[in-house]
Design a protein that fits this description.
Elements (H helix, E strand, L loop, with lengths): L3 H14 L15 H13 L5 H12 L5 H10 L16 H10 L9
Amino acid sequence: MLTEETIRLHIREYEASKKLPTENGGSHRKLREDQSALLCEHLEKNTRLYVKDIAAYVLSVFGVKYSISGMHSWLKSNGFTYKKPAVLPGKVDVEKQKQWLAAVPLSRKKTR
C-alpha cells in the first residue's frame, strides 16, 4: 500500500546513491547440486512437518546451516509445498470402517 509519490522518492534515492549491484553481492547456493538432489530424494520419501526439522537434517547430514526462512525458500524453489494434515476422528468404529471399505469400488481403494 505505497503511494506513487513514495515509490518515486525511493527510485530517486536509489538512483542518487548509484548503487546498481547489491552491496553484499547477493546470495549463493549453500548446497551443491548433488546435495540438493539427495535432499529432494530424502524429502520425497520422508515427511517432515516443520521446516526447522529439515534445516536440522541438512546441518547434520551436509554440515550446511540454513535459517528457517532460507530453508523455506530452498523448499519452495525446489517445488515442495506445505500441505496441512487432515483432521481425523479420535475414535474410529472399526466395523463401520470395514463396511465402508467393502462398499468402495476397487478403483478407488489405495493399495500399499
